[in-house]
Amino acid sequence: MNVQTTSGTNLGDQVATAILRMIASGDVTPGDRLPAERRLAEQLNVSRVSVRAGLQKLKAQGMLVSVRGGGTRVAEPDGRNGDPALAALVEMDRGSLADLVDIRAILEVWAVRRAAERANEDDIERINQLIADMSDPEQDRATLDVDFHLAIAKASGSVVYRHLLSVIRSTLEEMLRFHRFELFDKPEHDVAIAEQHKIIAKAISDHDPRAAENAMYQHLEWVRAHYILAGHTNQPE
Amino acid sequence: MNVQTTSGTNLGDQVATAILRMIASGDVTPGDRLPAERRLAEQLNVSRVSVRAGLQKLKAQGMLVSVRGGGTRVAEPDGRNGDPALAALVEMDRGSLADLVDIRAILEVWAVRRAAERANEDDIERINQLIADMSDPEQDRATLDVDFHLAIAKASGSVVYRHLLSVIRSTLEEMLRFHRFELFDKPEHDVAIAEQHKIIAKAISDHDPRAAENAMYQHLEWVRAHYILAGHTNQPE
DNA sequence: TTACAGAATTGGTATTACCATCGGTCCTTC
DNA sequence: GAAGGACCGATGGTAATACCAATTCTGTAA
After folding, report:
1. Nearest to A38 by CA among A29, A27, A46, A30
2. Helix/strand/coil (H, E, C) string of B153-221?
3. Residues B8, B203: Cα–Cα separation, whole Å
4. B120: CB within 7 A of chain D nucleic strand
5. Which of A69, A148, A205, A220 could cross-link to A105 by cystine, CB 3.0-4.6 Å?
6. Average pLDDT in the B121-128 region?
7. Under 8 Å between Cβ of B235 and B227
């Protein structure tokens, strides 16, 4: 096979699109190991240098993972890393942190409406299971909270949303961690949050988009008021 | 200088962080040309292969731009290209194209509300100027339409929003172009769109967030009905 | 001063070689 | 027969060298 059939200016990019095609066409699925570099070089009729250039491009985007001696595999769609450019922007302009929280909120509201519309039995079961787990004092609250929102993301049935959310979420977490925001975990808050989560879960189970949207909005407003931006204004320092 | 001082497992990543440091410290600013690959290899005491690996990582993230014979430069924070991972997702699941349009819509609604709240004199003047230009048959409609939305993005005063929008927009355009969607440019549509734009512009000028939000929502619904998804369902082919 | 030709610089590709790590095979041992 | 370990091949990572293609710089001539 000759790689020249693909468009692009340099060979590395052409190799990247060739690999991308393999993934898009389903020849290799997440978790699969793709052909060795030397073999790819032979198949695509380019040098190993160019193959590595193409692979490195995809690895930098988090689509592939290589391990020395073990091969190169297609990464799971989850666990994508954040957008470095976005992180840089937020870093340069601290005020935009509030915007990021804001935008994430409207995306979550959108997602929960979709989830109420499209959620299947498995999704609903998963969500209700998480709600039940929250009554268990043994479980870790923070993890359950994240899982709850991830379950909604999955129930929304939109890979695009899941991707955008993961990008925003990781950037958000990175920034919050970097600036040492304290997320005071008061026990009385858990009760309120658990109650809000229950309302959201019920709306999804009932397939009531309007109610779900509303409940999520209320929840996020509550969280914003009590946690992240408590005492912080929107002004750049 | 020895690059071993930086953390990381492979040399390419260490080179990348070294370059990142140069940018972060202000040694090189956007637009500047950084040292040639051979020189970097010498300075960092690694081979040119490793230098290229590091540079390619940053280039894949859109932070650097190389031109054969011209050198490698730090990219401007604006003009970032889209998210390849997002494009790949949409490519794999054509149905998510509708989601992308949907999400862009709610982001635009959010932005126009912010614009109505925060727009300053310059922003409003710019927007009204574009509205005026739309009456000029000499001007290119498509360009003006894009500029109009960009002007609103700027007026929103959120760099985060501008970044996310540019990511989504470029992916959207890439997909639409790739699948050869026809954007029928009927003259009678121009009149309707111009009218909708005027309403949006007025709401921003009046600093009326509610009205702006509403007008933008109406506009995007109209566009969706008449253009992009006309005759296309949410089913993968 | 301007215009152009040529040299030097720079990123892109190919080839070759070797190292570090992982995976599976095969042999030993109990 | 099963368990453990040594071994060897495969694979990704790094290096050195050479050459190509495109750009940029430079010096000369008009």
Report:
1. A46
2. HHHCCCHHHHHHHHHHHHHHHHHHHHCCCCCCCCHHHHHHHHHHHHHHHHHHHCCCHHHHHHHHHHHHH
3. 52
4. no
5. A220
6. 93
7. no
Q: Which residue is nearest to nucleotide C24 (CA to C1')?
A: A70
Contact B201, B128 (CB under 8 A): yes
pLDDT in tens, B87-104: 777 876 777 888 888 899
> Does strand C come within 7 Å of the CB of A31?
no
- ∠ CA(A171), CA(A173), CA(A176), 5° rounding? 105
d(CA A142, CA B226): 45
d(CA A52, CA A47): 9
Q: Max alpha carbon distance in chain B (Å)?
A: 66
Q: Is the CB of A38 under 7 A from strand D?
A: yes
Cα separations in angstroms, A171 against A83, B14, B39, B95:
7, 22, 34, 27
Residue B74: which H helix or E strand, with range? strand B71-74
A21, A109, A158, A220, best to mutate vs chain B, most B CBs in 10 Å: A158
Q: What would the mean pLDDT of A64-74 be, rounded to a whole number? A: 93
pLDDT of residue A38: 95
Query: What one-character-per-residue DSSP string does A135-201 give?
Result: T-TTS-HHHHHHHHHHHHHHHHT-HHHHHHHHHHHHHHHHHHHHTT------HHHHHHHHHHHHHHH
Q: Which residue has the tokens 């008021």?
A: A225
Give B 105-144 residues with CB within 8 A of chain A: 106-107, 110
